[in-house]
Write a structure and sequence with these properties.
This protein is mainly alpha-helical and about 475 residues long. It has 19 helices and two strands.
Length: about 475
């Protein structure tokens, strides 16, 4: 926050402080990872009294669901601060907003107090709104307003659900651990709380039909905003789907599981087909997020519908790994499209061509990330999606129709590669420089992680499985 009040500070100093801060945060999250999580509960819990009269406290902790997402968050913010190091437009304010957004994002995943979770959840909306409206593209004000209104109004039902869970707990508390261990609501009250939570998280994920804010926000947001929105903030919805809806209202979730599963299937297929129709490269990637988040919803719904502990763990392992892999792969794609737009001031695929020869580093990194996004074996999405569909085939075989979306995704990315990177150079391709050292420093780690997760996912799955294998049936 102090950076916002230093508008006259040298640009290099501001960017240096931002990179050091995000770098230190990433090192701290690595230290948390090294200390590990405990099976069957939360680890490394910190608790400080906040509002004792209502049972609210500053409670933070990690488990196999939150820790991978915290690692992803700190990693993407570090890379984003490196990417933004050339920005000369009000760098102090931009850096302050980015660091405030990182604090809110990590706090959302680490919070163990429902009231604290809601505060972090809302602060992130404010930070992203100002990031879009201040540094976005031509129609940024409308896109920022749509994003803010959708997500703010969408979050109000969650507040009602939190109040209901608080009033149903005995003694009254906002401690999420108590709500998970002993869900405080049952029957109609639990179903109403679930409906409220589902509405909030459906907007945030987003799923059809409450997804319409996403393409506009992505297209108009600056590159860093698109990376953080897709890589981190969409996970608030899927994280909440597991942490709140599945763990705090498990019986109601099971009753509504088939409906939730159907929504996930439709969103996955819908997102792929709509992405296929796009000519704007950024909008194409935005709609593939609807597709990939649909797979996560499928995994969580399948976990709720089965009584088989092993299948439940497989589905949740896959869904959580998909959250991480989507952040890595889609983050890389948005960085690369941003680098392309920085050079050509254009996103229409028909304006390019031949870039694989002219800019081989940019081209091959895009091809790798696109192949990962379409679920190619050996790359990040494959082990996640394989587990989701394996569990789905055993629990609700009809829902595996969503695998059709993988075929469509393959087609849309092959088309994008052909238009932008193959063939004869277009009007925007001539004289385009390849990635420089700073840009390589941003995309190379994501490419490495894409391969590492695809080839050897056990280093992440071991953390995830320690929690997912013990979740309440």
């Amino acid at each position: 926050m102090a950076l916002m009040f230093m508008p006259r500070a040298p640009r290099r100093l501001i960017h240096g402080v931002t990179i050091l801060t995000t770098g230190a945060t990433f090192l701290i999250t690595l230290a948390i990872w090294r200390r590990g999580v405990f099976a069957g509960g939360f680890a490394q819990v910190e608790e400080i009294a906040w509002i004792p009269s209502i049972g609210a406290a500053y409670r933070l902790g990690v488990d196999g669901l939150s820790l991978p997402l915290i690692l992803l968050t700190s990693f993407l913010f570090l890379l984003s601060s490196i990417y933004a190091a050339r920005s000369s437009d009000r760098p102090a304010v931009f850096a302050g907003l980015m660091l405030m957004l990182e604090t809110a994002s990590i706090g959302t995943f680490a919070a163990l107090d429902a009231l604290l979770f809601y505060v972090f959840f809302e602060v992130s909306l404010v930070s992203m709104y100002f990031m879009i409206v201040g540094w976005g593209y031509e129609d940024r004000r409308r896109a920022a307003l749509m994003f803010f209104l959708y997500t703010l109004l969408g979050s109000l039902p969650l507040l009602l659900a939190i109040l209901g869970l608080f009033l149903g707990s005995d003694p009254h508390t906002f401690d999420m651990r108590a709500w998970i261990d002993n869900p405080p609501l049952s029957g109609l009250a639990a179903m109403l709380a679930l409906i409220a939570m589902l509405f909030t998280f459906a907007v945030k994920i987003p799923v059809f039909p409450v997804h319409t804010w996403l393409p506009a926000a992505h297209v108009q947001a600056p590159t860093v905003g698109s990376v953080i929105l897709a890589g981190v903030m969409l996970k608030f919805g899927t994280y909440g789907l597991v942490r709140f809806a599945l763990q705090m209202t498990p019986d109601a979730f099971r009753e509504a599981g088939v409906v939730i599963l159907a929504v996930g299937v439709f969103s996955a297929i819908y997102g792929a087909f709509v992405a296929l129709a796009q000519s704007d490269l950024k909008k194409l990637i935005a709609y593939t997020s609807v597709n990939h988040m649909g797979y996560v919803v499928i995994g969580v719904a399948v976990a709720a519908l089965t009584f088989d502990a092993d299948l439940r763990a497989i589905a949740l392992d896959g869904a959580t790994l998909q959250m991480v892999s989507h952040g890595v792969v889609t983050g890389a794609l948005f960085f690369l499209v941003g680098m392309l737009q920085d050079r050509a001031h254009e996103r229409d695929m028909g304006a390019f061509g031949g870039l694989l020869t002219l800019t081989p580093r940019l081209g091959w990194f895009f091809v790798l990330s696109a192949f990962a996004s379409l679920g190619l074996p050996g790359l990040a999405h494959f082990p996640a999606e394989f587990q989701i569909f394996l569990a789905t085939l055993n629990v609700r075989p009809w829902a595996t129709i969503a695998i059709l979306a993988i075929v469509v995704t393959a087609g849309l990315y092959l088309r994008a590669i052909a238009l932008v990177f193959l063939g004869e150079p277009g009007e925007k391709s001539a004289g385009m420089p390849d990635l420089d050292r700073r840009e390589m420093l941003v995309v190379a780690p994501l490419a490495t992680l894409t391969i590492l997760i695809g080839v050897a996912p056990s280093w992440l799955l071991d953390i995830i499985h320690a929690t997912m294998a013990t979740l309440r049936q």
